[in-house]
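Example record

The entry below shows one chain as it appears in the dataset: sequence first, then structure tokens.
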Amino acid sequence: MTTLIDRVASLHRRVSYAADEEALQVEAAVLSAAVTASRRRPAVLAEVVRSHSPDRVAAARAATLEDYLALRRDAVESSQSTVEVARRLAISAAAVTKRRAAGRLLAFRHKGDWRYPAWQFAAGSVLPGVVEAWTAMPALYDELARVRWFTLSSLALGGRSPLGALQDGDVAAVVDAATYVGSR
């Protein structure tokens, strides 16, 4: 018997490979089903659990999805394909794929393909410390969230982004900060 968690995970995988318009349609269908389900819940539940109106929930989810799609679009625009990375590193596309699979190149999936953040490269190779920080980071989030972490300012790094700290040569501090990603 398929559990709800399995079904949601399957839906998430399908949406991550879908075109943006299709992903928005799926989100709208899920929201519609949630609204219908909330109308059918027992009256006792409403007394126990405070919930927002279906319109408010739908608006919040739509805004969240739009923000996510904008982040994904920005990440894709500032990344390179396997072929582009192969040219940049003067190796074959197969070698790029092997390095990614071995964890020696950072990448995230986009519509069934892999995209490599351009900022990880410096002088024809990978920026020192990028791979170490990537592997030190707990795999709590999807690849895109982990890639994005490198570009956000961090209190642990004195307000610098992990990428900025790596560019300054502060590898140990970035690797240390990466080990705490997701902890509170």
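Notes for this example: The CA atoms of residues 20 and 69 lie 7 Å apart. The radius of gyration is 20 Å.
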